[in-house]
Amino acid sequence: MIISPANSTFxxxxxxxNLTTHPATVDDLLYYDMxxxxxxxxxxxxLSVITFLVFSFVLAFIPWVQRSAFVILSPKxxxxxxxxxxxxxxxxxxxxHTLKRNSMTASLIxxxxxxxxxxxxxxxMERSRDVLRLQSSPIVYKLFQGIYWLTLLFLSIPxxxxxxxxxxxxxxxxxxxxxxxxxxxxxxxxxxKSSRYIFNRTVEVSEVNGPDAAGTVSxxxxxxx
Length: 225
What we know:
The chain is mainly alpha-helical. The chain has helices at 5-19, 26-31, 34-66, 75-99, 103-135, 138-163, 169-209. Helix 1 (5-19) crosses helix 5 (103-135), helix 5 packs parallel to helix 7 (169-209) and helix 6 (138-163) runs antiparallel to helix 7 (169-209).
């Protein structure tokens, strides 16, 4: 079930009646035993803490390796940090929503998750940009660039609806599914083009230095990957 403020009110209003008989859904089963509720919330909180610890480690490790604090201000690093931060916030939102289901705790999931998905997609695009230009025609590159911007727009709509307190589950579902389709399509495109680039590089090295040298091609030599 997609989390949104629209269905949180419904869950709260029907929860008590369901629990007096027998749990009929996964949500009812979770709330049938408050011990299970607390356990799930603790596990979600633990995952959130782990995410923030990894984020803090990467934030300190990259400047230490590069011997410069300014390296963290590169576009790719900023996007990666944004992805890690908002992922941790959304997991913390799930923990709060498990304990108390209402529109406020649902917003703590929907809004950070939308930002995390946008940072993820932007990071993938930034990382693969040079390869896409090499492996795609200008028309194809512009087409998928347009899909990228449209996907970002659809990813932002659930958060906008949440901020506007728009309580219609249908539009949450529609925009979420369209955004998910765009993310999957772009990911497949990035993987295809990057794999094709690696294959072409392997063939070039093999033709120049012989078949035994094909294994020396390193993914770290890919531009912006």
